[in-house]
Each structure stands twice: as C-alpha cells, then as structure tokens.
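Researcher: I'm preparing a figure for a lab meeting and need a structural model of a single chain. I don't have an experimental structure, so a prediction will have to do for now. The sequence is pasted below. Please return the structure as tokens so I can convert it later.
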Amino acid sequence: MPKLTTRSAHVLAIAGIALSSLLVLGYSGGITSMTQKNGAGCTCHGPSNNGVTVEIVGPSTLTPGEKGNYLVTIAGGPLAAAGVNLAASNGTLEASVGGGLQLISGELTHQTPRAPVSGTTTFNFAYTAPSTPGSATLYATGNSVNLLSGSGGDAWNHAPNKSITVSSATSVADEAVPTTMQLEQNYPNPFNPTTQLGFRIADFGFVRVSVHDISGREVAVLVNEEKGPGSHTVAWDASDMPSGVYVYRLQAGNEVRVRKMTLLK
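Model: Understood. Here is the structure written out token by token.
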C-alpha cells in the first residue's frame, strides 16, 4: 500500500471530520425509514423499548380524500428531548405548521429534537386518506435522548400501528353529512399539552372554533374559515397555557355549541 503523505493525511482527516459532522447533523435533523413499515427502528439510539412509550392519536375513520389532524406522543426514557419518524401505508402525510416535523421522501421526521412538556413530547401532523375506500395504517417510531455526546443512554420504541378505515361517503351518508351541527368531546381529556377537537356541520359555511378560559376570555382561535359539510378535526397545543378547565366553542351560522375540557400539567 502506498504511504500517505502528510498532505494526504490532512485531507483525509478533514474529510472524515466533515463526514462525521454531516452524519451528526443528519441525525439531529431526523431520519426516515425507521418505522415498522420498512425499517428496524432507531438502532443508533440504544436498545428498543427501554421504558419509552409512543402513541399516535387521531381519527380512526376518514372518508376518501379527507384530511385528519393527528399527533404523536413520546414519553419515558431519558427524555431530555425526543424525535420521531412517521410513515403511512397509503395516503399522504403532511407536516403541520409549528408541529416540529418535516416531509422527506413521503415520510415525516423531526426538524430538531424536541423538549418535553410535563414529561411528554408531542408532534402534530396531518394525514390525507387515499381517494378510494379501503384501509390505511400509520406507523411511528420515537426516540428518547439525553442530549449527551454519543448515543449512550438513549432509547426508542415503535408506536402501536394506527389503523384507519377509509369509508365511502355513500356507505356512511348519515355520518359523513350530518343533519345537525355536533361538537364532540375532545380527546384525550384531561390532556397535556395537546388535544383533538372534533365537530360536524351540516352545511357549507363560515365556521369558528375558539377556546376560552373559565372566566370567558378567549385564549385561542383554532378555526376561522369556510368549511364544507361533514366531520372535521382540529388540534390545540396548550403548551403555553396553565392547568385548568377551558371551554371550547363551535359557531357555524347562527348555531353555537360549547363543551368543557381540562388541561392537566
């Protein structure tokens, strides 16, 4: 083997440092193909299922082409911060604004590791069902890291796969197009810090969904636009709100519906 010159050694050393930096940046910015759809998990983050719990929360039934709002939660392990990889068997994933995720080759992964709030890290995303009736599956793998140098002490786990039924509008006509306006109880409830609010409207029109504290002060506006008839879901991230009872209000036309929910940090 030819002997390396001093200059060649320096070039190789610099290239090695650059490659290492790229790998570190790549992993800190998320990585795809780690879910049970097509991967073996976050094996670079230590042993799996070391006290880590990952869950996908959101609608289990959508109509063809309907978009639903979802969240994935990560708890347990060292949890100085957490990351995630999300995939879908079919349909389309979408990064929600402010949800901390990015879309890479059809899958979602974190932009940077995200710190927990009261022991749980949450990422929000959207999923659009395929255009034909059938079924779909959402996959998630989350890692819980200590943010120390290297991966020692980190852990990860797969979420239970989320099954979604894609029902045709003709077979669920009464459910897809309700004759009256409905506001569903949020899920989960109590929650920390993110929850899903579901509602149904009978006619196309302007819809407003707002959240108020117990004194009646408006603290968030989640929907303020025209919506078509059918079922809709919106997420509320209350990371910057104190624990307590809140009221969420649905207004469509001249009709109003109100429910209570509890934020428990």
